[in-house]
Amino acid sequence: MGTDAAQTGHLTAAALAVLPALERWLEFTDVAAPARRRDAWRAALDVDLPEKGAGADATLAELADQVVANGLPIGAPRFTGFITTGPPTVPAVAQFAAALASPQRYAVSAFNLLEDVSLRWLAQLCGLDDQVAGVYSSGGSVANLLALGAARQYAFERHGIDVGRDGLPPGMPARIYASAEAHHTVQRSAAVLGLGRDGVRSVPVDAHQRIRTDVLTAMIEADVAGGAVPVAVVGVAGTTNTGAIDPLDTLADIAARHDTWLHVDGAYGLPAAGLGEMAARFDGMRRAQSWIVDPHKWLATGVGCAATYVRDPLLLHRCFTQTPAAYLAMPGRGPAASPFEEFGVHYDDMGVELSAPPRGVLVWAVLREIGREGLHDRVRRHIGYARRLTELAHRHPRLEALTEPELSVACVRYRPARPVPDPELDRLNEELLRRLWRTTGHLPTSTVVDGRFAIRPCFIGVRHSEADVDGLAERIVEVGDAVAAG
């Protein structure tokens, strides 16, 4: 019998074979190139399963020339589309190190310790209490699922039902309340938790895209009168569309009045809660029972890192615990003399993942490198960019600002000198955005604000500059003029 030993050596040489391609990629000289070359790299990569391997050198060369060179430029200075970004050097290297030095997050290792240390640091960064307990997962979708799972457990336990063990009882509909601007992962969570997507009550928003608390109160009262179980009120601390922050203090009052769980979806905006000048917008946040935050957003850890915090981790355990498994037992007596005599914190019983990479090392690497001050400087800078673009739109006769930014999302559109009805204006801006992507290197995305198509940049990447902001405004006008001229 042979071994795979030949595939395990020469790490330095293998890394050096790919690093030049990565360095070239990070120059972001032509972000449209992967789309333009699509036929070529698809033909090279989309082939039949090989009967015999090509070997390390050929595989690494193909990785460099065909895969890395045709990646997704979300770390580019002018990419302002998703609320995720590429990592800078230190967390990227930390992820590489974790993949080799600790592929699992459990047992006795420095990586396991950093799960706990970084969760504590991240909570402090976001202004949460020291008593909260946290667990990492792959992103906001799973993070919201965990928090709302704990909320469901709490709500039904108050009726004497262990829903994690016994399932949902018949004849007791359950409701989650979230604004129409809340992320659609709330509906997905409700579906997975057995409440159904229609179990999420969509609450209208006001002119600033924040939840209407008067309508929320009426909805809860009507549902309770009809026999429904209120599971959670979701307050959004930074919506995906516009960056709006719900009135969290008022939501905390409403949740307390109805003895209902308050969950804060701070996947995007929670790191801004630690800024003194933003404190008033996060009033009431600490009165919640659960929170989520995605380090792969403002901390730029690289995608695949989110955190859920709860006040009572036993609720997570009762909701998500596995049945006992003999193979997970790690018998130890006295101080551990082997890494496998201790399992560490049973994060597997606090979520939906058993096998999971250590994600805390990524958060630790970011905060160890730049600290609280560095992260706060980044958040302030990005909020300033959104406000700058909005101000430029206010001042330019052919630009229009559709929102006033609370965080780092701006929503603007081009408006030609001649009067144009909204449907035609929407089509003009849609074409403008396509040309912007194809010809300028600026990569914002779009949304709809009060029925109007908006060009929506979100400034969250580590490589943005003020020149990129000004350049985006200039290119929107230039391209808009060209589209309007036909």
Write structural notes for this entry.
- The protein has 486 residues and is α/β, with parallel strands linked by helices.
- The chain has a domain at 93-367: Type I PLP-dependent aspartate aminotransferase-like (Major domain) (Aspartate Aminotransferase, domain 2).
- It has helices at residues 11-25, 33-36, 38-45, 56-67, 89-101, 110-125, 140-157, 163-166, 185-192, 213-225, 248-257, 313-320, 360-395, 422-439, 466-485; strands spanning 79-80, 133-137, 174-179, 200-203, 229-236, 261-265, 290-293, 306-310, 399-401, 412-414, 443-449, 452-456.
- The strands form three sheets. A seven-stranded mixed β-sheet has the order 2-8-7-6-5-3-4, sandwiched between helices. It has a three-stranded mixed β-sheet with strand order 1-11-12, covered by helices on one side.
- α6 runs parallel beside α13, α7 crosses α12 and α14 crosses α15 (466-485).
Blueprint of the fold:
Elements: H1 11-25, H2 33-36, H3 38-45, H4 56-67, E1 79-80, H5 89-101, H6 110-125, E2 133-137, H7 140-157, H8 163-166, E3 174-179, H9 185-192, E4 200-203, H10 213-225, E5 229-236, H11 248-257, E6 261-265, E7 290-293, E8 306-310, H12 313-320, H13 360-395, E9 399-401, E10 412-414, H14 422-439, E11 443-449, E12 452-456, H15 466-485
Parallel strand pairs: 1-11, 3-4, 3-5, 5-6, 6-7
Antiparallel strand pairs: 2-8, 7-8, 9-10, 11-12
Helix content: 40-55%
Strand content: 5-15%
State the total count of DSSP E strands. Answer: 12
> Could you tell me the mean pLDDT?
94
Low-confidence stretches: none
| Biggest sheet strand line-up | 2-8-7-6-5-3-4
Principal-axis shape equals: globular
Provide the CATH superfamily of the domain at 93-367: Type I PLP-dependent aspartate aminotransferase-like (Major domain)
Counting DSSP H or I runs of 4 or more residues, the number of helices is 15
**Topology-level CATH name of the domain at 93-367:** Aspartate Aminotransferase, domain 2
CATH second-level architecture of the domain at 93-367? 3-Layer(aba) Sandwich
The CATH class of the domain at 93-367, by name, is: Alpha Beta
Instruction: Report the sheet with the most strands, covering strand number, pairing sense and barrel closure.
Output: 7 strands, mixed
Instruction: Please compute the radius of gyration using only Cα atoms.
Output: 24 Å
| Chain oligomer state | single chain
Structural class: alpha/beta
Order of helices and strands: HHHHEHHEHHEHEHEHEEEHHEEHEEH
